[in-house]
Specification:
alpha/beta, 9-stranded mixed sheet
Length: 329
């Protein structure tokens, strides 16, 4: 069956709300500078009201990944829940405008659209306060089995594994993808996700996942070791391709007993590292669907990551296709 989409991703649909602030503001609100935390709806509302003028940029890890894929000419789709409110309409507009197929119906009742309230101090440090909201209401009913079956790759976000309903939706999607011979890709997302669901993630990699993305800290946490070599030896035993990102040290691709070490792409400047891993995954999978070698897939990922860290926001702003053509042909 010809693939309808190159990738169908399931993840959190979030809008980043970014403002500059002072360390004193953080102290007055009892927020640790540089922290990343989940907050309830009441705090999200009160903190938003207290923030200075802000700009809204659509985000969400898997959503950023497929936006990057679309910028590289791929045909991606995204499944994620927003509410029928202002931020939900911002998210839906942005992801569709980026060239991503997004048809998940918004919630008309229940929680408001998820958001990440990002407070940037003069030193460039970012303090992130995330309200998941409607993201956690995604369910099996939101899945289009035909769309899952018709995508070359099903891409799942580890951040969304915690709530029971989205987890059930992702398990169903895996079953559909497997039944139709499609590839399944998974991102570990964050150390706290790994530590909370280590056994689940190990079982996924061993039994259901063809391609896994994680940074060196996440992979080490997955196998409870401080040695990256030990962690790579463990993850290589699973029947999947593993891609390990190492920030300025580049990336390592493990596949079939082979190890490919790829240098990082130099960035002209580093303003905001948010979304670097997301865009790396997007570049890697876009290149994979084009039939490039695994080392070249990682090179494309590094180029996409270098672009996104050169500006604020986790969606590409430069012409990624032109960048790739200039550097790799």
């Amino acid at each position: 069956m010809t693939a309808r989409h190159h990738v169908l991703a399931i993840g959190n649909a979030l809008v980043d709300v970014i403002t500059t602030t002072t360390p004193e503001f953080l102290g007055d609100h009892g927020i640790a500078k540089g922290s990343m935390r989940l907050i309830p709806s009441e705090e999200a509302e009160s903190l938003y009201a207290a923030m200075g003028p802000a700009r809204e940029i659509s985000g969400g890890s898997a959503a950023n990944t497929v936006a990057g894929m679309a910028a590289l000419g791929a045909r991606p789709a995204f499944v994620g829940r927003v509410a029928d409110d202002q931020l939900g309409r911002v998210f839906a507009h942005d992801i569709r405008a980026a060239g991503v197929d997004f048809t998940t119906a918004p919630s008309t009742e229940g929680n408001s659209t998820g958001r990440c309230l990002i407070l940037v101090t003069p030193d460039g440090d970012r303090t992130m306060n995330t309200y998941l909201g409607a993201c956690q209401e995604l369910s099996e009913a939101d899945l289009d089995a035909d769309a899952v079956a018709g995508a070359e790759i099903l891409y799942l976000e580890g951040y969304l594994w915690d709530p029971p309903a989205p987890r059930a939706a992702m398990k169903k999607a895996i079953a559909v993808a497997r039944a139709h011979g499609r590839k399944v890709a998974f991102t570990l997302s964050d150390v706290f996700c790994v530590e909370g669901y280590r056994a689940d993630f190990q079982e996924l990699l061993a039994s259901h996942v063809d391609l896994v993305f994680g940074n060196e800290h996440e992979v080490c946490a997955l196998y409870q070791t401080k040695s990256l070599d030990e962690a790579m030896a463990e993850i290589a035993r699973h029947a999947c391709t593993a891609v390990i990102t190492r920030s300025a040290a580049g990336a390592i691709v493990l596949e079939g007993g082979r190890r490919h070490v790829i240098a990082a792409e130099p960035a002209a400047r580093v303003l905001d590292t948010t979304g670097a891993g997301d865009l790396f995954a997007g570049g890697f999978m876009a290149a994979m669907t084009q039939g490039r070698s695994l080392p070249d897939c990682a090179r494309v990922g590094c180029i996409a990551a270098a672009e996104v860290i050169s500006h604020y926001g986790a969606r590409p702003e430069a012409d990624l296709k032109a960048l790739i053509k200039a550097k790799l042909g």
